[in-house]
Design a protein that fits this description.
This protein has one helix and no strands. By secondary structure, it is mainly alpha-helical. The longest helix is centred in the middle third of the chain and has 22 residues. The protein is elongated, with a radius of gyration of 15 Å.
Length: 46
């Protein structure tokens, strides 16, 4: 079993987090007012 391509992994992770956040919002009877996406690359160690 090999590693999945980075783009695929990120898109699946994004879908998963959106589902989690939507479920929390529904559970708490809240409204989603803003969804923002920001990708941060890890810092490289020197």
């Amino acid at each position: 079993m090999g590693l999945a391509p980075e783009g695929f992994s990120r898109s699946e992770q994004k879908k998963s987090w959106n589902e989690v956040l939507n479920n929390i919002s529904k559970y708490l009877n809240g409204d989603v007012t803003k969804k923002e996406e920001k990708v941060v690359e890890p810092q490289k160690k020197e």
